[in-house]
From TrEMBL:
It is found in: Cytoplasm. Residues 146-198 are annotated as: Domain III. The lineage of its organism: Bacteria, Bacillati, Actinomycetota, Actinomycetes, Propionibacteriales. The RuvA-RuvB-RuvC complex processes Holliday junction (HJ) DNA during genetic recombination and DNA repair, while the RuvA-RuvB complex plays an important role in the rescue of blocked DNA replication forks via replication fork reversal (RFR). RuvA specifically binds to HJ cruciform DNA, conferring on it an open structure. The RuvB hexamer acts as an ATP-dependent pump, pulling dsDNA into and through the RuvAB complex. HJ branch migration allows RuvC to scan DNA until it finds its consensus sequence, where it cleaves and resolves the cruciform DNA. Keywords: ATP-binding, Cytoplasm, DNA damage, DNA recombination, DNA repair, DNA-binding, Helicase, Hydrolase, Nucleotide-binding. One of its GO terms (cellular component) is Holliday junction helicase complex. This is Holliday junction branch migration complex subunit RuvA. It comes from Nocardioides terrae. HAMAP family: DNA_HJ_migration_RuvA (MF_00031). It comes from the Bacteria. Pfam families: HHH_5, RuvA_C, RuvA_N. InterPro entries: DNA_helicase_Holl-junc_RuvA_I, Hlx-hairpin-Hlx_DNA-bd_motif, NA-bd_OB-fold, RuvA, RuvA_2-like, RuvA_C, RuvA_C_sf. GO terms for molecular function: ATP binding; four-way junction DNA binding; four-way junction helicase activity.
Amino acid sequence: MIAHVRGTVAALTLSSAVVEVGGVGLELFCTPSTLAALRTGMEATLPTALIVREDSLTLFGFASEEEKSIFEIVQTVQGVGPKLAQAIVAVLEPDTLRAAVANDDAKTLTRVPGVGLKGAQRMILELKDRLGAPVGTARATGAPVMSASWRDQVQEALQGLGYNAKDAERAVAGVPDPDGTPNVSALLRAALQGLSKA
C-alpha cells in the first residue's frame, strides 16, 4: 500500500497530477479541487489510495486524510467503484456526506453524477454505521484558482465527471461570479446543482 506521496509536481492534467518521487513520476488521479491547489514545480504531499486490478494499478491522490478515508469507506457500498467514490469526494464535503447519510437525505446524495435515487438509498443503508456523525469541522471548500479562469476549471471538471461540453458550458454560465477569490470546489458544486435542476 502506498499511504502518501511527497515530491515535486511535474505535470497537471484535467484529472491527474504527476508527482516526481526519487526520479520516478507517479500519476495520481485527483478531484478538481485538489488539482486546483497544485501547480507545476511546487512540493506537495498527498495522501493516496492504490487500487489494484488484474490489468492495472491506479493511484488516487487526496487533499486530506479525511477525503481518503471517505473514498475508501464509500467503496464498501455495493456498486460503488473508485471512479464513483472519487466523484462523491469531489461533489460532497465529508461532513455533508455524513449529514446526508445520518438524516436519510437521498436527494443530497443524488447530486453526485452517477448516483440515482436507488443508489443513494443503498448508500444510506450501508454507510449508516460506518461514517459516523458530522464533526462540524469541514475543511475549507477548495483553493484559489492558480492558472486558468475559474469558469474554465469548472467546465473542465464537469467534463471530467462525464458531462458533455455543451451541458458543462451551460452549467458554468448559470453560476454567478463570486465575491473575492474564486473557490473552485464551491463553484463546481453550484454548477452541479444547476445541472441537477435542469
